[in-house]
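Escalation from tier 1.

The customer reports that the assembly of two entities below gives different structure tokens on two consecutive runs. Tier 1 could not reproduce it. I'm attaching the input and our single run for tier 2 to review.
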Amino acid sequence: MFPWDLLANALVAGLLLGGVYAAVSLGVSIIFGLLDIANIAQPAFLILGAYAVYVVNTGFGVDPILAGLLFTPVFYLLGAAVYRVYYGSFERRGEEALRGLVFFFGLLFIIEVSLSIKFGVDYRLVQAGYLGKSFEIGGIGIAYRLLVPCLVGLAMTLALHLFLGRSFYGRAIMAVSQDRLALRLMGADPVHIKTVAFGIGIAAASLAGALIITITPVIPSSDRDYIGRMFAITVLGGMGSIGGTLVAAIILGVVESLMSTFFGPSWSQAVSFGILLTALAVRPSGLFGR
Amino acid sequence: MRQPWRRSFITGALAGALTVVLVLTTAFVALAADPIKIGFGMALTGGLSANGKPALLAIQIWKDDINKKGGLLGRQVELVFYDDQTNPATVPGIYTKLLDVDKVDLIISGYGTNLIAPLLPIAIERKLTLMGMFGLANNEKYQYPNYFQIQPAGPDPQISTAIGFFELAAKQTPKPQTVALVGADAEYPQNALVGARDLVKKFGFKTLYDKTYPPNTVDYTPIVRAIKATNADIVFVASYPPDSVGMLRAAHEVGLQPKIFGGGMVGLMFTSVMTSMGSALNGVVNYDFWAPEPAFMAIPGIKEFLKDYQARAEKAGVDPLGYYLPPYSYALMQVLGQAVEGTKGLDQQKIADYIRATEFNTIVGKVKFGKNGEWAKGRTLMVQYQKIQGSSVDQFRGPGKKVVLWPDEFKSGSIIYPYAAALK
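Tier 1 run:
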């Protein structure tokens, strides 16, 4: 008899994982997808956010998700500052392609090494009352450790979707991704808009870092585990599409989960990336790309 | 009448002789004052750095200790090391520099199987004595006689992680019958799983699940749920630290309660993981190499080492207790140091012959190497986490939390069986 309960559990686990993957990829979707800046240091900001949460959680017992939210303004300012340096040093001079890439590569290593020096290289985990607990609905087990980050990930996706579609700054960010000259003609400063967008992208990464450390332990080099997934989800979703990012993340999460449950986990990521390649072959602009 | 040329010849000869003596003396003094350089790469960043940095601290403590006693052969010891970034590709370059540019006298390996693998061919080519630090079955292919490995895996390293686990399982009443095997797609877990499969056959268990997963898996719930669906009596896990935590958390969330659970889960013994996981560790039967149980604390030198290590660990930002790798890293250096003193020189072959023939007294006990460079008799422990409460680090300093179940000569308590009984 087919194990329907296993299938249902695998689907739910995949959806929960997809929600987290979406949160992890939102920052890339904005910075790489909309601004066309290949910020390969994005996963380092993710882990930096995770460590910030770790400090507050272990020092003051603040819930990791709440701590992540509290840190978003700080990371927004950090992101804005990074963009200003990048703009002044590379983009303004038209040297953003290769030299900009080297800049972000260097930034990634600086963050990683700084974390190693400051915190050492032990695995860091956070504590929260709901970790290790789960509940069951109709034979489907749901762990709070995944449910809470997934819900936060979905909320982040919705908030960004609404922000980009309905607010002035959101529309300006969408506009700058399409035609910065036209935006300038409308009286808006593309550099300012891009600074705001970059800051939001980094803030999103830091909050996603709070979700990651809630799910799994991190060390300074954990960023390398996420770099592939982040960019793959962004590309599969259609560069810069927030809704597409969510759908792509859920596809990857569900496929990973189903493969792990029924065919052996070692195939899970190979099949996920196989789907990415197939989707891109059929639709090069991604699922929701224009 | 004396001839002037004769007098000047004698003067010249004397001056020449004096110069030669002076040069030789200076060279001798310089040689005597030159430190003995010991070179290595070490994982100070990257995935294995959580162990690489404590290992480095232990080596530095040994260096300080030996230098306080006057060094080796009357010469101070100097360490020359580079960060291998947990990247095997960096190893050949690091050791080429150590040997050809830094001109080190002796080398030891960095930490871990993957980092020893590219080093062993270099040692073989240059006929060097190589001390290996926690490599699993690196020398099985080469059988290089001058390689010595400090992890107490024993003559058959592939089964060393799992042998105690399955032997214990086979002794329980009622005897478990079925097994689930799971591990990461990486060198150590793969080796451990190969050994586990042999032992499953040897003890007559039936395998219901045997699968691997990618090392960067984020959520282990689907894997654990699939294992739970098999209802296996024994669940053997060969994992690295993040997966060990992920598997254990998922096991609690899904309610996986086989009769015996654990085996080869790297990382559970790290202090940061022990304090974070707390009571979730209770009942897990896992391999280990050292525990603060009476038999180990009674070994001369260990208390002094741990005191020194723990005092320096916080500043170094490494594991505050140092019960896993550091004692063995220090012991590795003790073996090398004793061999240098024993052979009264730095001849690679003589040092290797001496290490092969000698039983060494170290802070982890007596160490004697066998034919393949592994310990002549294995000493991988099976411990069970018991009665852990909360997240206090102090509870792990003393005995009773990591009870040694196997082998019998180090046994410090009895297994709580089945696994579910330890969770109550």
